[in-house]
């Protein structure tokens, strides 16, 4: 039977990782995959995570199953981190999931259970796996305009015009902060206008929050999510702890489903538990427990917040350095958007031939759509990248 299988399309980002590994040049630079790296190129285990794991090894007395929704303390801690007090707790159903990917998948599954006809609207562009999962599930998808290639900022008029076509009961997938792959984000005012349109159309927002703390800070990065969740009757939120806790391989995420009325929450929760049961029974616990320990222990939390702030500001410094270097080399402000973008990525708006030349001639690997991972740089490689961009554009 396996001889009947067809090859699956290669994941472009993972293929880029392979190509980078195979490149013998010593001064090659990897700006591909979305993993934070410090100036030494290392993805460190955060201090608070190490300490929480140490305590866990010492104190954990059982590894018996948790509940289908995971440990309720994890949901409580994450809801506090993401929503604060903005939504009544009794309207929120939640399950722990394997990472943000698992949260997205279960969110789509829940939407389909509730409304088999729902179309999921994704930004153009979006994290490619959103579209890949939706296609695999056979769910109808549409895209809304999001990125203006000319300015490298949000094409807000295009976005609004496209969202006018959303039908009642459709799902509109939004990035909570630090848009992947573009780095371009909505202003507070624009979020307000999106809320107004979704309300008018009767659509349900689904927020993918994978980078809280990587943009403007933990609170600021949650502001759009809080505004949307508190204004709309229903909302899905898929959160990942991979980046902000650096627990990528532990597969730690949470899906929240906010019902219009608290009386609906038990059924929503039952459906979420059912989805976990059908997929893997119990979600992974180690990362979730570590995150819970950090969020509920004042000392660990303060240390985590401090380290996350170092990570965030190092990426902002690199943005400023790169924008400055490009301004100097091009004698223009056409790359000023790099300093305005937020999060780990910026889409530079370069044609694919230029991206290819940057890779072939200078050994700098960015994704073919000209998305670069800013955390792949350090103060020595910033000038090299700036020179490579300028040279490849001229060639
Ligand atoms: N959503 C977005 C926008 C992402 O960029 C990512 C990670 N690349 C995820 C979800 C999934 O993250 P995780 O590794 O936690 O599954």
From TrEMBL:
<keyword id="KW-0032">Aminotransferase</keyword>
<dbReference type="InterPro" id="IPR000796">
    <property type="entry name" value="Asp_trans"/>
</dbReference>
<dbReference type="GO" id="GO:0004838">
    <property type="term" value="F:L-tyrosine-2-oxoglutarate transaminase activity"/>
</dbReference>
<dbReference type="InterPro" id="IPR015424">
    <property type="entry name" value="PyrdxlP-dep_Trfase"/>
</dbReference>
<dbReference type="GO" id="GO:0033585">
    <property type="term" value="P:L-phenylalanine biosynthetic process from chorismate via phenylpyruvate"/>
</dbReference>
<dbReference type="InterPro" id="IPR015422">
    <property type="entry name" value="PyrdxlP-dep_Trfase_small"/>
</dbReference>
<protein>
    <submittedName>
        <fullName>Aspartate/tyrosine/aromatic aminotransferase</fullName>
    </submittedName>
</protein>
<dbReference type="Pfam" id="PF00155">
    <property type="entry name" value="Aminotran_1_2"/>
</dbReference>
<keyword id="KW-0663">Pyridoxal phosphate</keyword>
<dbReference type="GO" id="GO:0004069">
    <property type="term" value="F:L-aspartate:2-oxoglutarate aminotransferase activity"/>
</dbReference>
<dbReference type="GO" id="GO:0030170">
    <property type="term" value="F:pyridoxal phosphate binding"/>
</dbReference>
<dbReference type="GO" id="GO:0042802">
    <property type="term" value="F:identical protein binding"/>
</dbReference>
<comment type="subunit">
    <text>Homodimer.</text>
</comment>
<dbReference type="InterPro" id="IPR015421">
    <property type="entry name" value="PyrdxlP-dep_Trfase_major"/>
</dbReference>
<comment type="similarity">
    <text>Belongs to the class-I pyridoxal-phosphate-dependent aminotransferase family.</text>
</comment>
<dbReference type="InterPro" id="IPR004839">
    <property type="entry name" value="Aminotransferase_I/II_large"/>
</dbReference>
<dbReference type="GO" id="GO:0005829">
    <property type="term" value="C:cytosol"/>
</dbReference>
<keyword id="KW-0808">Transferase</keyword>
<feature type="domain" description="Aminotransferase class I/classII large">
    <location>
        <begin position="27"/>
        <end position="389"/>
    </location>
</feature>
